[in-house]
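Q: what does this look like with uridine-diphosphate-N-acetylglucosamine bound?
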Amino acid sequence: MKQYMIKGGQPLRGEVQIGGAKNAALGIIVAAIMADEPVVIDNLPQVDDVKVLLDALDGIGAKVEHLDENTVRIDGSTVSDVIVDDEYIRKIRGSYYLVGALLGKYKKAVVALPGGCQIGSRPIDQHIKGFEQLGAKVTIHNGMIDAIAENLEGSHIYLDCPSVGATINIMMVAALSNGKTIIENPAKEPHIVDVANFLNSMGANIKGAGTDAIRIRGVEKLHGSEYSIIPDQIEAGTFMLAAAATGGDVYIKNVIPKHLEAITAKLTEIGAKVREYDDYVHVVADKRLGYANVKTMPYPGFPTDMQPQMTTLLALSEGVSIVTETIFETRFKYIAELRRMGANFNVEGNAAIVTGVEKLTGADVVAPDLRAGAALVIAGLAAEGITVIDQIHYIERGYEKFDEKLRNLGAIIEVGDSDDERELQKFRFKVG
Ligand code: UD1
């Protein structure tokens, strides 16, 4: 099994290029098969979740061609199957978009129930409600979602909670349904807007993405397009906090600063300097940072996907902070790992009370999920001594060339093999 070996204590310095948004990419590459013509997608992040979904598209007959590292051409006109199931697709969350895309285009989809990070119960009732309101019959059997429709008719759908996945799934089906659909209380994350823009670039008629109501007028078919995915807000935020936690000075390039406002606001509140430019931000932490209270909320609130990284930064800051997780109920599992590095937390219900310590110390820890894994990397970069992080396949699901980008900023981080003790010994010898 692959692991990260990190020697902490180096302030990150320099510049890092942020890749395309993983959560936008998952919706976009699947929506691409709804077009009758080939679609070219650029700024595609090279992360494992994207690879799994591209393989799944290939598996049902779509032609997937890599034009370069971050560009893919997808031709969905050759799709020959609406059943998607394999052990990989069961592990990722974005697989649920296959239901929306196949149902919208072929009026039938049979897809393995989505997996994803174990951060809460993660129901899909709002997706199903949306499909049913658009005229589909949905059943769950043998671990599969089975959706079928004779006709898809536009509808007025009110989401009980602003679910990212449900909003995108309903937009996809409604894009090819008859008549008009309104989604009330939709998610407003930047990747919702990006998927809507992409669907529109293929000829869909979607208005209001990013606002309190999305209005979709169904069209008969979608055509080819060329599209570039927006920068990854969470990757950018992770590097911003890694810079702050190590007392660094980093230019985070190729970002949309507006998407980072919740993170910028918290960093500024605790004493880091953040300067925003057109397409980059500059983060400097030249003193020990202070405390803050943080509550995760749907966009434009503080993103739940940045909660573990922020909690880690606060674990090193002066004073007592309270972090409240309102989106996913079991998203504090990594705290046990951070305690092994000397962090001081009390978890009460959905709140973590974080008493800042002056330093963390390196330890052997295990990444429990994607974003918590990134948080442990931040802890390792800031800690004194050597940290070894196991189960980094979680991190590779969502961060492109993470170790390489960190090394370019001066971090001492290498990928090792947990089955080969000598690699760790060599690393220890090398870094002293
Ligand atoms: C997506 C993201 C994930 C991010 C999350 C919140 C992808 C692949 N994953 O996950 O990285 O952490 O948004 O920004 O894009 N809910 C229901 N019923 C539903 C759907 C959701 O009750 O049918 C609840 C969930 O339990 C959760 C909240 O709504 O409390 C938000 O979930 P949702 O936005 O759907 O998250 P995901 O799409 O799973």
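Residues 2-19+231-431 form a domain with the UDP-n-acetylglucosamine1-carboxyvinyl-transferase; Chain fold (CATH 3.65.10.10). The mean pLDDT is 96.
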